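User: Sequence in, structure out. Go.
Assistant: Echoing your sequence, followed by the structure tokens.
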Amino acid sequence: MEKIVDLHMHSTYSDGTFTPVDMINMMSDLGVDYASITDHDNVKAYEDITNTKFKLDKPINIIPATELGCSFDGVIRDVLGYGIDRKVIDEFVSKRYSAEAKLEKQKRLLNEYKRVFRENGIVFDNGLEVNRGNKSEAFMVMYNSLIKYPENVEKYPFISKITMFFWNYCSNSDSKFFVDESKEYPTIKEGIELIHKAGGLAFLAHPCMYRIGKLKTLLLINHAIECGLDGIEVLHSQHTFDDKLFLAEVARKYKLYKSGGSDFHGGTKPDISMVKGKGDLIVSYNMIKDWVDKVDKIILK
């Protein structure tokens, strides 16, 4: 029987809506064999997992992982770290991303979003605030406000597609909606070096999701390779069939490991399901078998 794999998911410790324990139980119901919770810039989910006694129908191989936001030419590009020593990652992020620092960043970003959207005639509620400091909190607070006004979507129809709006517009330095979120992040080189220091493998996350064209995507991948990249995320809910073929060929040409996952967030991205993504995602064990059993893992029973 084909093994069930999902190596990209988010819990309440970043921008997901399910707790790590709930997610493990969901994985068990789905018969998952290999999985990673890849919360943004932290590994807190694994404390919950290792401190909980589960009663699972079959073992689940959990590969400790994180998704590090990294800066590249003024924009954020994510790097996934698999098989990591959680203490090394936790020490780094605890120093760099204190609760106070994260909240101050989201306050700065919210003010930037207000300025940019106001300049472009987008209507939003008065008195918007952030209070948690979670990744993307400022964007989500703003987005949930602006989609309440039909005139915004009428003027800019692409706003209705949250993922496209964030990556193609708010995170695109060529767009009039651009807001620079990368200032506080490590560079791609620093992110990859941190993952390697933690004994893990570094994968460039969803390279085609940024919709910057194949040439710029190749430049991004080549830069990451020069920084010591181990692999790329070939399969992802936001990748088209053409994207998958393109990235599989890039991985073959540059001898990179391949990975894949749904990028499940729960209610934050309700159109994406665990394991199946938008309904047709299949991450095969054969695609990851050349590396997945070589990294550290937690076997839950």
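User: And one key feature?
Assistant: DSSP finds eleven helices and nine strands in the chain.
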